[in-house]
Amino acid sequence: MSGGVQNLVISLGAMQLARKIPFEDPDVLNYVRIAYVSVQLIVLAVYYYVSVQVKKKNDLTVLKYVEPPTPMSGEDGKLVTTTVRDYDLQQTSTGLRGVYTGVAMMGVMHIYFKFTQPLFIQALMGLKSLYDAKIVQIHLLGQPATGDLQRPFKVASMFGAATGPLTDAAAIAEAEKKVGKKDD
């Protein structure tokens, strides 16, 4: 089952479970708030730990790939040359940005609009997204960076095959030629 479908199933199951939780009880609501904040702190701590591990390993292996163009832009893909260390730190930063955005949205939904069920659902989804993060699988769970975990990471689609950066030699050579022409 793909990650998108798993997230959907977990969300729907959590919604059904959340309907049975008496959020009107202030004690229950406080426990759910504590659980949500605890999960978010755990996620932030894990991403911090991963960034420390990446910096400690200091893998300076060169990584070249062609970033796919944005859909319907008419542009060609952009050549990216980086190191494994920088790529992993960028992925960690992307994960952190996702956590901060989720916390901000949850804060607005809970404090301003008084929604309570999303606290419970997002507490579960925070742990699921952390487990699914490829950078966490490599640096925390110790899985080898091969197959789906090979850098640059492919993005799984809910409806089809994974898409992502092109790493084949032909695509890189073509992008290098285009960069060379622009420099002239």
Identify the notable features of this structure and list them briefly.
single chain, 184 residues, mainly alpha, two-stranded antiparallel sheet, 6 helices, elongated
Structure explained in plain terms:
The chain has 184 residues and is mostly helical. The longest helix is centred in the first third of the chain and has 32 residues, at 26-57. A two-stranded antiparallel sheet has the order 1-2. 62% of the residues lie in helices and 7% in strands. The chain has six helices and two strands. The radius of gyration is 20 Å and the shape is elongated. 16% of the residues are buried.
Distance from N terminus to C terminus (CA atoms, Å) equals 48 Å
Radius of gyration: 20 Å
Strand tally is 2
Across the major sheet, the strand order is 1-2
Helix % is: 55-70%
Query: SSE string, helix = H, strand = E?
Result: HHEEHHHH
Q: What is the percentage of strand-forming residues? A: 5-15%
Mean pLDDT: 89
Structural class estimated from helices and strands? mainly alpha
The biggest beta sheet is recorded as:
2 strands, antiparallel
The low-pLDDT segments are none
Count of DSSP-assigned helices: 6
In short:
By secondary structure, the chain is mainly alpha-helical. The protein has helices spanning 3-18, 26-57, 84-112, 117-132, 134-139, 169-183, and strands spanning 62-67, 78-83.
SSE blueprint:
Layout: H1 3-18, H2 26-57, E1 62-67, E2 78-83, H3 84-112, H4 117-132, H5 134-139, H6 169-183
Antiparallel strand pairs: 1-2
Helix pairs in contact: 1-4, 2-3, 2-4, 3-4
